[in-house]
TrEMBL record:
Keywords: Membrane, Transmembrane, Transmembrane helix
Organism superkingdom: Bacteria
Protein name: Tripartite tricarboxylate transporter permease
Lipoprotein listed as a keyword: no
């Protein structure tokens, strides 16, 4: 083990490897900040360069891009209400309100530290529990994945208790949007109304750009003259909350990191679903859920810890079993194979030096997040000094370029504009956007796994006795749905006992 560690460190301290890692951190952060781009594009652009690199520099470049491109998306989400990556969409809910009231520096500080902590947490899991967790993840068949999606959707029904009907309606709208296009089972077209461009469905990036960026521009144009919140321009930089905040926030970090790791291990879930599920859970368990969406720092922390913890989680099945957790790790896996790394159980016994090289690179890349946030925050937050008309025009341009660059499709711009009007209308009428996005992200996973579960298991309830993980998830769902009723009943009993 010591010899393997020394071999990994020797590769890592090579000047070429360090330069590649630095390039990955810097370029990854920039790509993450640019709306519509993200880790998939960052890794895809880097793949041709890795073919001419040795193992150390190629691994360092990929790990640096992977970690920081997810983090970079939060900067645009906080400062402009434009999610740089889909995984940062949940950060908009509380990050942008904080920036508007003058706490943009604090929001970036929390995002940076939360991202690094989530990434570090996942590295520990990847290092010590990867083989065990990979085997455990294989127990998640279509039934378990369906129940995970249902559990997340049920959380939507209780986290917006004050506007329950509107929250459920928004969630249904999101699920309806996700169902547009080709049926995954039969291949039939749904809700396309004979319009061929809709056959591929509603892309996620244009939808996010429209719902958040364009709708925000429309809201700001309608309110033009009022200007940003008092104090927004006064605080530029990077601010870390005090110890009193972390005394309670560490629970949010731990819980969100675990959610991110588990969803990273599960194929097809990814950082976007992890961030929304963690955000929902943080709001559900908060003592002040009504403050979420208005600038609650724990909302940012939950989202960012989860989506960055996915990085290590997604590498668990990739390295242990050779099964990529998502499209991003599939590209990373391909690059590693081209470098002579053979994923699978033997990797941990015969080539531990390669595993340690990946872990060390991930560790330094997460430190790079802290460096990028600390030194780049003053540059990032100077965007708040721009005149509002110029800032709004820049948001529209960035959103349009990022949307078009994804598929080189003008139709995506039409989707973005339509989503902008939809988001503006929902916000004017008081409908929350979070349930809509959660419904859109989770609906395909729920539908596909539900149909597969029916094919494999039928309708026999005995299957829950044969699959304990599914039974545990079912109990959790029932607990979430019945919790408000039980809480009211218990509260009524206590009041009656107290009045006697």
């Amino acid at each position: 083990m010591l010899n393997d560690a020394l071999a990994a460190v020797t590769l890592l301290v090579d000047p070429t490897t360090l330069v590649a890692l630095l390039a990955g951190v810097v370029v990854g952060t920039i790509i993450g900040v640019l709306p519509g781009l993200g880790p998939s594009i960052a890794i895809a652009l880097a793949l041709p360069f890795t073919l001419n690199m040795s193992l150390g520099p190629s691994v360092a470049l990929l790990m640096g891009l992977y970690c920081t491109s997810i983090y970079g998306g939060s900067v645009a989400a906080i400062l402009l209400n434009v999610p740089g990556t889909p995984a940062s969409a949940a950060t908009c809910f509380d990050g942008y309100p904080m920036a508007r009231r003058g706490d943009g520096d604090l929001a970036i500080g929390i995002t940076t530290i939360g991202s690094a902590m989530g990434g570090m947490f996942s590295i520990v899991i990847l290092a010590f529990l990867a083989p065990f967790l990979a085997r455990f993840a294989l127990r998640f068949g279509p039934l378990e994945m369906f129940l995970v999606g249902v559990f997340a959707l049920c959380c939507v029904a209780i986290i917006e208790r004050a506007i329950l009907v509107k929250a459920v309606a928004a969630g249904l709208v999101g699920m309806a949007l996700a169902s547009i296009g080709q049926d995954p089972a039969s291949g039939d077209m749904r809700l396309t109304f004979g319009y061929f461009p809709l056959a591929a469905g509603i892309p996620l990036v244009p939808l996010l750009m429209g719902l958040f960026a364009i709708s925000e521009v429309m809201m700001r144009v309608a309110e033009y003259g009022r200007g940003p919140a008092e104090g927004t321009l006064a605080r530029i930089g990077f601010r870390v909350p005090g110890l009193h905040f972390w005394r309670s926030a560490w629970r949010t970090v731990a819980k969100s990191s675990l959610i991110g790791i588990v969803l990273g291990i599960l194929p097809g879930a990814g950082p976007t679903a992890a961030s929304f599920i963690s955000y929902s859970e943080a709001k559900r368990s908060s003592k002040d859920p009504d403050s979420f969406g208005k600038g609650n720092p724990e909302g940012i922390l939950a989202s960012e810890a989860a989506n960055n913890a996915v990085t290590g989680g997604a590498l668990v099945p990739s390295l242990s079993l050779g099964i990529p957790g998502d499209p991003i790790t599939a590209m990373i896996l391909a690059a590693l194979v081209l470098q002579g790394v053979t994923p699978g159980p033997r990797l941990y016994t015969e080539h531990m030096d390669q595993v340690l090289l990946i872990l060390f690179s991930l560790f330094i890349a997460n430190i790079g997040i802290l460096v990028a946030g600390g030194f780049g925050a003053r540059l990032f937050t100077r965007v708040l000094r721009l005149p509002e008309p110029l800032l709004l025009a820049g948001v529209v341009v960035l959103a349009s370029v990022g949307t078009f660059a994804g598929n080189n499709s003008a139709f995506d711009l039409v989707i973005m504009a339509a989503a902008g009007f939809l988001g503006w209308g929902l916000r004017v009428l008081g409908f929350p956007l979070a349930p809509l996005i959660i419904g859109y992200v989770l609906a395909p996973m729920v539908e596909v796994n539900f149909k597969q579960a029916l094919i494999v298991y039928g309708t026999d309830p005995v299957v829950f006795l044969e699959r304990p993980v599914a039974a545990a998830l079912l109990v959790m769902i029932l607990g979430v749905l019945l919790y408000p009723t039980i809480a009211r009943a218990v509260g009524g009993m206590r009041r009656r006992i107290a009045s006697r």
